[in-house]
Amino acid sequence: MTRIAPSILSADFAALGEDITKVAGDADWLHVDVMDGHFVPNLTIGPPVVKAIRRHSDMYLDCHLMMTNPGQYLEAFRAAGADSCSVHVEIGHTSELIDQMRALGLGVGLAVNPETPIDDCLPWLERIDLLLVMTVHPGFGGQSFMSEVVPKIARARHAIDADGHSVVLEVDGGIDSATAAAVAGAGAEMFVAGSAIFGHDDPAAAVRELRAAGDAARQPA
Questions:
Q1: 19, 28, 33, 176: which one is catalytic?
Q2: Confidence (pTM)
Q3: Please, what is the end-to-end C-alpha distance for the chain in angstroms?
């Protein structure tokens, strides 16, 4: 079944707790986009906001670390209440970062940018819990879905299934009811969506619509 992780990047930060409550009953995870202004050209939030969310919610907090030096902050995110963190394969030191996350008791995610070959991630499938395939260039919300990434998703799905890995295949970027079918058909199971959910008049209904669109795309013709 399709799972949905609303991205708080598109929420109202002046009413963040209220926005989270709106989706809590329907969403599976909550996605926290962390940007450092170096790896991506934007600044967002850090462990203090994760700590505040954790006081407000018991949802699974999936933190996407778009950072050049995530290893310096993993312990702080864990202490703040993060359940999992995803680091980018592009920054290197992947083995060490996986070991560090495991030692901290974090779920281990590996993220990959649109222009990076998916083969760069495949050697790590036996050691991670989550593979996050970006369907936009990371850094800003509200971007248009990049359809050219769909074959990468399918390639990742094949590799996960072929070797029996227990890896969640997640997609992030431009995901809405229209693009959900493409990524679900390629094998993605966890959808990150920001503006499609928090820009909707009824965020909870938007979560349900996305899930239905993903599930429909998996049904046999």
A1: 33
A2: 0.95
A3: 17
